[in-house]
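[Primary structure, fold]
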Amino acid sequence: MSPGPTGIHLDSTLENHFKAAFTEAKTCGGFEKGEFADISIVIMPPWFKCKAYENGCQGQYTRPNFILISAFSLWKHEVIHYLLDLNTGDPDKDHKNNLFKDCA
């Protein structure tokens, strides 16, 4: 018997989780603009290089619609950056908005 394929298997369960959490964040924040289908999601290694943090990131929103994610628990956090940017023009990189606490 030969070994199975290596790597990660992603099925609709993860997509459904992302969609539901996107809708929850959008509703919680009272955002009008923003559709799940418009986001490009990139699954990253556990820690990846980014400009925001010297030791790397586990989630990152990049304009116009890219979310890089390795820790799925940060999904709503990154969605809030996207929704803030889309609806207000400011993704709030400094995390001053209470939505990060209240909706993520």
User: Anything to note?
Assistant: The chain has three helices and three strands.
